[in-house]
Amino acid sequence: MEIIVPLIAATLCVWGLIKRINIFESFVEGVKEGMRTVVFIAPTMIALLLAVGMLRASGLLTWIAETIRPAAEAVGFPAELVPMGLLRPVSGSGASAILLGIYEDYGADSFLAKCASVVAGSTETTFYAVTMYYSAAGITKIRHTLVSALLADFTAIVLSVVTVSLFLS
User: Fold this and answer.
1) What pTM value is reported for the model?
2) Distance (Å, rounded) from C-alpha 31 to C-alpha 25?
3) What are the C-alpha distances in Å from 133 to residues 21, 79, 130, 153?
4) Angle at 101 between CA 112 and CA 92, to 5 degrees
5) CB atoms within 10 A of CB 21
6) Which end of the chain, N or C, is surrounded by fewer C-beta atoms within 10 Å?
């Protein structure tokens, strides 16, 4: 496995030599283009990371989770999954921290941990993905994409509980 990356690099170099391409110049052009992309996307990344940090530090996420708790419990949804469901579309690392907390508090083989694992694997960091990819492509109208993606995340979260109940309990 360790040979794969050097093998790919060597293959590209040989291919470039066969096609008589200036490999170094092409590499430098690619790096320049990559740096322009980084500079273009950096403000969006910084704003998103700042917003996630403020959301977690403010306690708003905990307040929303506690507000939703009675309704979640009434329909048989594990209330402990609510914070993960709220944070997952915004922050993958924040959702991973919640997932690890669930593993530690309830055990990795618990029903809740299985549900949280399925949520982690079947949902997307929607705001991050839409922000990054759309800003890189210069797309500004994201309304329908965002609504559809959040609906897909909600569906995945609900179906994770159903799936675990049916197949992994």
Assistant:
1) 0.68
2) 10
3) 30, 32, 6, 18
4) 95
5) 13
6) N
DSSP 141: -
Question: How many helical (H) and strand (E) elements, i.e. helices and strands, does the chain have?
Answer: 8, 0
Q: How far apart are CA 137 and CA 131, in angstroms?
A: 10
Q: How far is CA 144 from the centre of its chain?
A: 19
In whole angstroms, give the CA distance from residue 39 to residue 99: 32
CB 120 within 8 A of CB 132: no
Q: Which residues contact 75 (CB under 8 A, 6 or more apart)?
A: none
Most distant CA pair in the chain: distance in Å? 68
Distance CA 26, CA 24 (A): 5
Q: Are 164 and 111 in contact (CB under 8 A)?
A: yes
